[in-house]
Amino acid sequence: DAGVIQSPRHEVTEMGQEVTLRCKPISGHNSLFWYRQTMMRGLELLIYFNNNVPIDDSGMPEDRFSAKMPNASFSTLKIQPSEPRDSAVYFCASGRGVFEQFFGPGTRLTVL
Amino acid sequence: AQKVTQAQTEISVVEKEDVTLDCVYETRDTTYYLFWYKQPPSGELVFLIRRNSFDEQNEISGRYSWNFQKSTSSFNFTITASQVVDSAVYFCALIGGTSYGKLTFGQGTILTVHP
To answer: What is the nearest CA distance from B60 to chain A, expressed in angstroms?
Structure first.
């Protein structure tokens, strides 16, 4: 079975540009999570969806960040406008319910 | 509030040595789940194990074993006969029953296995 798929794997952009990260969860999973990993703060939950509905977005840093899940097989995390401090590895995870989380390979974002 | 502490920042061993990674957790939830993930140099996060708070049985999977002790709030991970391919960052994590999916991660332990 395919695991969680994320694209792109690497993204380099300039400050002020819009960035869109994409995630395809494992088929049959009804929960989807976006995390961010930085050296300073470690792994942080940004937002969690259950059955395509955002349940907890308290970890989203600010209004520049938005996430959508239009259907059970696709989610996006958008940053507009991007800033250098957004540079991090962004992980998407999916699971059956909240007590199971399998992670994708991550997207390494660099904002210059 | 939830907290996971991995006191060992870095561990270095020689191949074939046994190594134990410590994990101590804090939660007020009576129902919770504990996890270990491996992050190899390639960067992905690989799921290793999940344990719920009602199951204190130790688990063994090949060279890996886990010791869960509620009395000391610990969930330690042992690699027997370590190999170079075990070199990675290992994360212990916790989801409390009332935390709605929020995985709280420890800071990670960097394990280096030398040939």
So the answer is: 20
